[in-house]
């Protein structure tokens, strides 16, 4: 029986968390990372992928999974230029396979691939976390010409962002589905050939923002996604925190259903505290601190003999740690240990 592999997200040499510290977390199998200096849409060069893998292996960890290979906006918009970008994406898949990569996480969210309204909300215990408050969102989006979202302020030039938002103005959810379908029909056969599993990340949060179309948000959309191309290579990153901040999504049910079908290649484990009015706060992994039944979710994975990759998703900032919001060492390490402890209890022969 192959076993679940626990991995930790690492952002490369700029990441304040050293690889050797990650390797000291008990039970840590590997790293999930990406090449962060390649412009979106370009082919990832094999030598750079190999170098990243070497760096990680020298620290005693594996690199078998990538998060993410970003999808160029022209592909999502269905522009004629998409064919070149898709061809580049196919070459990136081939290069990643040559370096021994097994799973590629990606998403299909227009413009912003995650949205929070504050990244350092102080909790009563002195830790800080990422939150989504609709009252803050309204303030942030009052002036659509000056949209400045926490975490996105340096990703786009103002005019570039404006042009992009305009390009999506008349795009519907069905248009985005058509673009996703076109993309999958082109890349899944290549992924199959290379024995790579594609794993789409759900929208975060799983509803539309700023009138942008958003389509990967619930059970029906996951059903529709896997029906576009029937292949083991066309699968999911099941993010408990992204799907779980919509109380209508039953994460345990989703894991059971798509786990049985062998469609979940990557499990993101994160707890979230759902508040009124669709507000939410990211909480510690421990079930009682949020709204999700984390051991129930792990039980569903264990029952489906899950043998893919799992990572503790975001963590709070605790013990005075400074760093990348959501991606400190301490709280994610606690999360990994908590998850591995429950996993052992469910799976030990
Ligand atoms: Mn996630």
TrEMBL record:
Coiled coil: none annotated. Belongs to the mannonate dehydratase family. The keyword Lyase applies. Its cofactor is Fe(2+); Mn(2+). It catalyses: D-mannonate = 2-dehydro-3-deoxy-D-gluconate + H2O. One of its GO terms (biological process) is D-glucuronate catabolic process. InterPro entries: Man_deHydtase, Xyl_isomerase-like_sf. It comes from the Bacteria. PANTHER family: MANNONATE DEHYDRATASE. Pathway: Carbohydrate metabolism; pentose and glucuronate interconversion. NCBIfam families: PRK03906.1 (NF003027), uxuA (TIGR00695). GO terms for molecular function: ferrous iron binding; manganese ion binding; mannonate dehydratase activity. This is Mannonate dehydratase. It comes from Amphibacillus marinus. Its EC number is 4.2.1.8. Pfam families: UxuA. Keywords: Iron, Lyase, Manganese. Catalyzes the dehydration of D-mannonate.
